[in-house]
Amino acid sequence: MLESLKANIESEILKISRTEQLGGFVEGFAKVHAAAVRKAELRKAGYAVPDEGSKRDWRQRRKEARERVEVTIGVYQLEELKL
């Protein structure tokens, strides 16, 4: 009985560790999405919300996009990021 319990716990720990690895990758997208939702709500309420992209130089935005592209997930590598 203890061996089956140990096997179940080990499989759950493995699933959790794999999920945590993906969590770091998805966190950036979640933050961007939350910011986009907030901006949309503010615009809908009638507030003027400046576009963040206009504040930064296009070179800086391109550099940041390339850095995001280089993120690896296990054996897979993200080749291109399109927003």
Secondary structure elements and pairings:
Layout: H1 2-44, H2 58-69, E1 72-73, E2 76-77
Antiparallel strand pairs: 1-2
Number of strands: 2
Assembly annotation: single chain
Could you give the distance between the termini? 50 Å
- Total individual domains: 2
Q: Strand-residue fraction?
A: under 5%
H/I helix tally: 2
Biggest beta-sheet profile: 2 strands, antiparallel
Shape: elongated
Mean pLDDT: 76
What radius of gyration results from the CA coordinates? 20 Å
Give structural attributes.
83 residues, 2 domains, mainly alpha, single chain, elongated
Would you mind describing this structure in some detail?
The chain has 83 residues and is mainly alpha-helical. The chain folds into 2 domains: 2-49; 56-83, no CATH class. The protein is built from 2 helices and 2 strands, in the order H-H-E-E. It has helices at residues 2-44, 58-69, and strands at residues 72-73, 76-77. 0% of the residues are buried. The model has no long low-confidence stretch (mean pLDDT 76).
Quick gist of this model?
This protein has 83 residues and is mainly alpha-helical.
